[in-house]
Design a protein that fits this description.
Layout: E1 9-10, H1 13-22, E2 25-32, E3 35-42, E4 44-46, E5 54-60, E6 72-84, H2 90-95, E7 101-112, E8 114-116, H3 119-134, H4 148-156, E9 158-173, H5 180-191, H6 200-213
Antiparallel strand pairs: 1-9, 2-3, 2-6, 4-5, 5-9, 6-7, 7-9, 8-9
Helix pairs in contact: 5-6
């Protein structure tokens, strides 16, 4: 069971889905005959399949992890994160009772992974992945752009994976346990960091703290 204090629990399904879309590289953790393994794989979410959706991805056929399935696995998606200095809290200047911490936004997805054996389904998953990640390009590349013989070779070299989702677990640590004044100090501190303008993680965390400060 993941440790989640009530004020950090993320129960908003749409917010968790948005994190996955914005940060699709998931750390896939599973137990194998050789012990625990972690694989870093980009996933897309199919919300139309299963009670909680289905993750779609693929691995290289040479990666024998696809032969180790059949048990519950975990995929961890991490969103914005940033170090929080106690110097940013107005309350620290009043009484000194403050320590450093680290803010972050994460989603854990649990489910039993399955190998997709059907060639047409594998192709459909690759097209889904490609279309999702190419969507922002001025002229999106399509799977059909590749020569058919080359595409056949590439499809033979991968194994498509599906994970019907059993449950989502979200944790957003964005200074919700601090006073409004301290949260405002965190937002200001993050935005004034020398590298803030070049770090989307820092500015995104500032946005999260500011957003959550206005939630009931």
């Amino acid at each position: 069971m993941t440790y989640i204090p009530p004020h950090f629990a993320q129960n908003d399904a749409s917010a968790m889905q948005a994190l996955l879309r914005d940060f699709p590289l998931g750390t896939w953790v599973l137990s194998t005959a050789d012990g625990l393994q972690a694989h870093h794989i980009p996933w897309v979410l199919d919300t139309t399949r299963g009670a909680h959706g289905t993750l779609l991805g693929h691995v290289a056929r040479a990666n024998t992890v696809w032969q180790e399935l059949g048990f519950e696995t975990l995929v961890v998606f991490q969103g914005p994160s940033a170090y929080i200095s106690p110097n940013w809290y107005p309350s620290k200047r009043e009484h000194g009772r403050a320590v450093p911490t680290y803010n972050y936004d994460v989603v854990h997805i649990h489910g039993v992974a399955q190998v997709v054996e059907d060639k047409a389904q594998t192709l459909a998953i690759m097209e889904r992945l490609t279309n999702t990640f190419e969507a922002a390009q001025p002229k999106p590349w399509r799977v059909a752009d590749a020569p058919s013989d080359y595409l056949e070779q590439m499809l033979a070299a991968i194994v498509a994976i599906e994970i019907p989702i059993d449950r989502w677990v979200g944790k957003r640590k964005a200074s919700q346990n601090r006073s409004p004044a301290d949260r405002a100090g965190v937002v200001q501190g993050l935005r004034e960091q020398p590298h803030a303008q070049s770090s989307t993680a820092v500015t995104a965390m500032a946005d999260l703290v500011q957003h959550d400060a206005h939630q009931p």
